Amino acid sequence: TSKVATIYPQDPALPIGSSLTATCSVNPDHGIHAGSLYWTLNGKRLPSSAYSILSPTVLSVTLPRLSGSRQRSGDNLVCHNSGGHVLAGSCIYVGMPPEKPVNLTCWSRNTKDLTCRWAPGGQGETFIKTKYTLKYKLRWYGREKECEDYSAGEPYTCYIPRDLALFTPYEIWVEASNQLGTATSDVIYLDILDVVTTDPPTDVTVSRVGDLEDQLTVHWGTPPALKDFLFQAKYQIRYRLEESSDWKVQRLFLKINRLTPLHINSSGAAHIWKRLQTGSCDSKVGQQNSTLRRDLKQFFGWFFGWVRKHAYGCSGMSIKLYDQWRVWLQKSHKTRNQVGKELLIRILH
């Protein structure tokens, strides 16, 4: 059967502030005169002053200075006969093109997956449905791919569960699109290994060793996400004085009389020997900092020598770690006052 009527334009997309003139054309075979028709927008009848009878079978309506759509699925413009029956309808999409997405960040929990989050540009309100697509590809080769899992429970987030390459940087970006245009975020470059994060260790306990006041044993369990981790995880232990409000030693200087290499066993336990000596800012500070740097240098010299001896072909990795430590030591020399304020013990496990 032929349609009773048609509306033109059908499902238009318009910028906010635009005006629209639409027509309802009735099939002459049905004997309906245009003068008996009327219009509604989202169920509300439009005033007849906005109508124009263009012919016995065509009625137009003009909508000036349109504001943003009230419904993401589009505003419903409908043509009715005199009895109220719907003859034809059209969806009107009135809004703004999307702005460039911003604040794109990504992280991995186990080097096998990747989660990325971003924010809409500007206010993020376009009044019409905007689709965000996370895209990625290997930086120097490979084809462009799209993230498919947007069900993480948070808006503007996508999850890539598998099939990620290591030791090769990725290009990652977000495209935002709707009926009025497309916008693309800045491209970020990352290696999966550089963005690994995970849950904290489980079952952390601290106990004193025998009757020694300056010796503690710290035990912890591996986070579940790292049970089948491809690489050894790096753990970090921090401590503070009980009366301190943050993780820094305020107005204290640390003098390590004896720094024993940290012993780590397969169960994830580290024995820490520490001796703290309080003091005020005086002429001995430089001497104390010098002693601290010398002790740290001795320790790291032993540690990286051990890595080179036991890494079996991974000397490049140990050299990289050594270079990072050397840069840190140089910086600490420039800011020697900070050395006495905070001691951060890093444990490789």
UniProtKB/TrEMBL annotation:
Does Transcription regulation count among this protein's keywords?
A: no
User: Which key words are in the record?
Assistant: Disulfide bond, Glycoprotein, Immunoglobulin domain, Phosphoprotein, Receptor, Repeat, Signal
Q: What is the designated name of this protein?
A: Cytokine receptor-like factor 1a
Q: State the organism of origin.
A: Sinocyclocheilus rhinocerous
This protein's source sits in the domain of life called Eukaryota
Where do transmembrane segments lie in this chain? Answer: none
Entry-linked CDD domains: FN3
Q: Which family does it belong to?
A: Belongs to the type I cytokine receptor family. Type 3 subfamily.
Under the GO molecular function aspect, what terms does this record hold?
A: cytokine binding; cytokine receptor activity
